Structure formats: C-alpha cells, structure tokens
Amino acid sequence: MKKTTSRSDLIDTLSLPDLCRFCQADEAWVIELVEYGVLEPLGRTVQNWHFQGPSIARAKKARRLNRDLGINVAGVALVLELLEERDAVLSRLSRYEAI
Amino acid sequence: MDFKDYYKVLGIPRTAGADDIKKAFRKNARKYHPDINPGADAEMKFKDVNEAYEVLKDPERRAAYDQLGQEPPPGQGPYQPPPDWDSGFAFSEGGPYGQEGFSDFFETLFRRGAGPAGESRSAQGPDSHGRVEITIEDAYRGANRTISLRMPVVGPDGRVTLQDRSISVQIPKGTAQGQHIRLAGQAAPAFGSGAAGDLYLEVAFAAHPVYRPDGRDLHLDLPVAPWEAALGGHVVMPTPDGKVDLRIPKNARTGQKLRLKGKGLPGVPAGDIYATLRIVNPKVTTQEARAFFEKMAKDMPFDPRAQLGG
User: Fold this and answer.
1) Which of B71, B195, B196, B293 is most buried by its number of CB atoms within 10 A?
2) CA-CA distance, B102 to B50, in Å (whole number)?
3) Which domains occur in chain A, in start order?
4) Is B185 on the interface with A (CB under 8 A)?
C-alpha cells in the first residue's frame, strides 16, 4: 500500500467561491441557501461573505440531499431542520434509556 | 471480484422498464441516504443502489450488463466476465469520478480510463471528500490518524484499478465535530495531465460513553449522592483535560445544569462543559444503611409527590 504524508490544515472559513468549489455547486444555489436561512455567513455583502464550520458542513449535506434525492432548496431547508430535530430527540431518548 | 446483481439491489425484476428502474432507485435512495439514515450499513447500501442505477439507467450499459447473464452459482471462485462480453456496446464510462470508487465489479466492467464529461478542466483535478473519526480526547490534545482510502487510479495502459492509499493526517488540537481538514493535492490523481485536487476530510467524533458534544461544548450527566445534593459542597469531576473541582450548590436538584467555563474543547473561545446533575441512591445492603434510611423516613417531613395533586 502506498503511504503518503502531507500537510493538513483545518478549514476555518470559506469565501463564497471557495464554498462553491467545495460542494461543487454554483453561486446562485448557495445564495438561495442563505436566503432560506440554511446557511448563515458572516459579512455584509455577498463579496465579503465567509462561511464557518457549521455552515460548511450544512452546505455539503444540503448539496448531497439536492444531488442524490433531487430536493430543491425549500425542501432541503425543511429536511435539514427536521433531521436536526430528530437527532436532538434521539439523543435525549438515548439518555433516558441509559438511566 | 464479486458479481453484483443490480436488479436484486434495486429490488426489481430483470424485465423492469426504465420508469420502474427510476422509481425503484428514487425509493431506495431516500430509504438509504446516509444523511438521513446514520450508520455505516445505510452508507454501503446507498452506494450499491447508486452503482446499480448508474448501470441500469443507461440502455447501452444495461444491455451489456444483461449480456453477462445471471450471477454464477457460489463456490466458483472470483467472478470473471466472459471475454468480449461488451463487444458491440458503446456505453460511456460512469461512476463517481474522483471520489472513492464503486465496487471492483463496476470499476473493471464499466470504467476504462476515460475522463468524466467536462474533462477539459485541465488546471486541477477534482476534489475528493471523506471522513475521519476521532475521539473527544484526540480533539483536546490533537492527534495523528492514518486513514485508508480506495481510489480509482488510471494505469499506463489506460485501465482503471482501485488502489488502497493510506494517508497520515494531523488532527489539530481543538478540532470540533463537523469541521473539515484539507489535504492539499491528495485527491485521486487527475485523469490526463492536471494536478491532483484536494482531499477534504470531515471530522466526526466517535460516540463517547460519557460526553455528548455540541459544537465546542460538552454535556454530561454527573451522578451525585443524595447528601451531596442536599448539603452542597465540592466534588471532583474528571474531564478530558484532567480532574476539576466542582462546587455543588445546596439543595441541588436532579436535572440542574452546572457550567464549567472554558473546560470544553480548546479554541478561541474555548467551549464549556455542562454537567447535568443526577441524584443516585446508594444500594442499601447493610443493617446500618437501612437504619439510616428508616430514620430519614421517620424524621423528615417530605412528600416527593406533593405536586401531583389529588
């Protein structure tokens, strides 16, 4: 097996073009995600936007749901909210079951 | 390699029409999508479903696949396609380009070195995405992980093989769940002459018996004895960063949350630890302990069900 060692860096923030490349999406789609409140970038204008950890992970998830299941932005926003609610409920449930 | 029965994967007969194939794919994709169904099982299943659809949705590819016939009976060793099985079919190669490949079966039969549509992007190859699992303790201290990935690699003869690569990854101190680590130039090598793209790894925390992470904060249940809760005082609590002294207020209740500022995941600002108190009773096994509880029962005017009404 080939073994490689390389420099690894933790991603703190991504600009809009970087995020688009990161999740292989176009800018219009990312902007729509922001308009629906799925992503919350810092910065006032689109040019100054930068996306932090949780938004980066959400964007990637949103893109997968969109690409794999054909869900539009409104649907993705709803699915992500319901999934987060479900995860919170499941983790509370597992706590009560553990007691 | 193993034979893949794509019809079985999608749960459809070999005579299924294009519409039925699409319907079965959509249903299975929803059912097994890894973002909706946590667990490695669903992820494998989802990959199989995608691979099956990749072949069956394309009439030429499907015809070539049907030509292979049924799965051979077990016990005949690794599967070998008959020679010239694909002659007369002109399908284009498919598959998740630049990511972890499909099965050996797919890679051998349906992908032969040609690039993806849009191959003209010669500046840099596509990025790859993966995951790396670390423990909460790793996140406090930083760690080195070696991950292995299977990636399609084009040989000099133009054939594609899946190669195992192992990559050493430095996990910085204070990495939180869901953050991404970039490994520049470590994606699957580009087809053609371009440089390899970047490999992104999403950090996931392994389930921990004690802590529940939430961003940079950690939550845990902290068991306390009834007298610790009633009288208050200091208890010693272990954290991933070492033991800390925690003050329990007098008359503490089960469910009460105590915050340890800055003791969560390191960073600027560092996270907090939230301890939710849980009063646990000692098991009464000795005569003395029994006498204690009997004395409490007699001497303490306490009705735990006062608020139930009635």
Assistant:
1) B196
2) 9
3) 13-98 (1.10.1660.10)
4) yes
